[in-house]
Specification:
- By secondary structure, the chain is of the alpha/beta class.
- The chain has a domain at 78-291: Alpha-Beta Complex (Spore Coat Polysaccharide Biosynthesis Protein SpsA, Chain A).
- It is built from 18 helices and eight strands.
- Strands 3-2-1-4-6-5-7-8 form an eight-stranded mixed β-sheet, sandwiched between helices.
- The longest helix has 48 residues, at 21-68.
- The protein is elongated and about 90 Å long.
- The chain starts with a helix and ends in a 10-residue tail after the last helix.
Amino acid sequence: MRNLFHREPEVNANYDFTGSSSDVWQHIRVSMVMPPLTVAICICAVMSLMMFIERVYMTVVVLLVKFMGKKKYTQYKLEALKEDLEQNRSYPMVLVQVPMYNEKEVYKLSIGAVCSLTWPSDRLIVQVLDDSTNEILRVTLNHTSIVQELDMKWLFINKLISCMQALVELECKKWIQRGVNVKYETRNNRNGYKAGALREGLDKDYVFDCEFVVIFDADFQPEEDFLWRTVPYLLENPELALVQARWKFGTAGIWRIKAIEDAGGWKDRTTVEDMDLAVRASLKGWKFVFVGDLERVSIWKKLHVIYAFFFVRKIIAHWVTFFFYCVIIPICIMVPEVHLPKPIAIYVPATITILNSSCTLRSLHLLVFWILFENVMSFHRSKATIIGLLGANRVNEWVVTEKLGNATKQKSNVKPIKKARSRFGERLHFSELIMGLFLLYVAIYDMLFGKDHMFVYLLLQSGAFFVVGVGYVGISVSN
C-alpha cells in the first residue's frame, strides 16, 4: 500500500532549514501533508470501489431483467375485482389529498380533475391542502350570493382578488355547490412543507373513517376511472400498502392509511417524502403494486436498499464526487511525492460514468457538461449530507419550481411580463467562486510543473464552478 500511494521524494536525510524556501516547503509536504493525504486517498479509493461494484451490479440486474425476463409478476384480474366490488356495493371511504403551494396556473385544472373522479360521492372526500403564501390580500369569501353567481362573475372576481388562497377556496366552493365533498384546509405556517401538510391533513376528524388515501400533486390530472383501476387491488390483498403506476409526470398513488401509520407517518426530514415513506413501509414488510408487480420485500432486499440506495448513492457518491475529484486530486497535483493511481483516479470513475450514461444515449452529447456540473452540485449535496447526518438544525428555504401545466398554450397570445433583474451582488455565490479560484490555481500550477496534463480537467471544472458562482445556473432569490 505504501508503494501504491507513495513516491519517494528526492530529498536529503538531513534538512537544512537555512536553505531555500522550496526545501522547507518540501519538508512540510513530506512530514505533514503526505500522511493525511495518503489516508484520504485510501479512503476515497475504497469508496470509489464501492460505487463501482454497486453500479456494475445494477447494470447486470437491468440487463437480466431486460433481455432474459427474470422479473416475476403476479397477475391480477382487475375486471373480476371491479365486478365483485359493484355487486357487493361495499365501497371503502377514500380520501383524496391535493397539496398546493402558489399553484396559480394549475389549481383549477387539478381541483376539477380530482372532483371529477368516478366514485360514490358519499364515499369520497377531496381534501385541498393549500399552503399558498401570497400575503397581498388574505380574503375569505363566504357570501352565498357571490358563490351562487360564481360562473357569471368569475372574470370580475379574478381581476379584483390577488390572494391565491381566496382563489383556490372559491374553486373548492364551486365544486361543493355541485355536490362534491371538498374540504379546504390551510395552515398558519408551512412547518414540514408538503410532508407537514399531508401529515396534518390525515389528523382531521373526518379522515378517521377513511381507509385509503390518494395523493395527487397539483400538476397531476388523473383519469376519471383512476380509483376504479386502483382500489380493487387494495381490497383484494390486505398486506398491500401502495398501488402506483407509471405516469408521464407528477406524483400519484393510493395508500392504505394503516400502512402509513405503521411506517411512522409522513416525515419532513427530506424533500422526497413519498420515497422516504415507501422505503420505511417496505422495511415494515408491506407490499406494493407497480403495473401488476406484487412482491414481498426480503431481508436481503431490505439490507440492499439501506446499503446501496442510502449509504452508497446518497452518502458515498456525493462525498467521493466532491472531496476526491475537487479536493484530493488537486492537492495531489501540488504534492508530487504522493502517487495517485490512475485506475482509481481515471478508469474507475470513467467506467461508472459510462454505465450511468448508457441508459440515456440520446443525451450523450451533454456528458461532459453533466459531469462538470454534477461535481459542482456534489459540493452542496456533501454539505447537506453532513448536516443531515449530524442532525443540525440548519435548513435552507427550497425554491419550488413553478408549475405551468398547459397554461403556456392558453396564454400563447399574451406577452410575457419582463421581470426585474436581480442585482449582480445578490447573484454571487462565494463558495463556488472560491472553489473555482482554487482549481484554476492548481490548473496553472500543473501547466507549469506537472507532467500528467490534469490541467485540462481542472480548467473545465473551475469554469463550471465560476459559471455557477456568478449566478448563471439556477434561480436567484432576492434577499
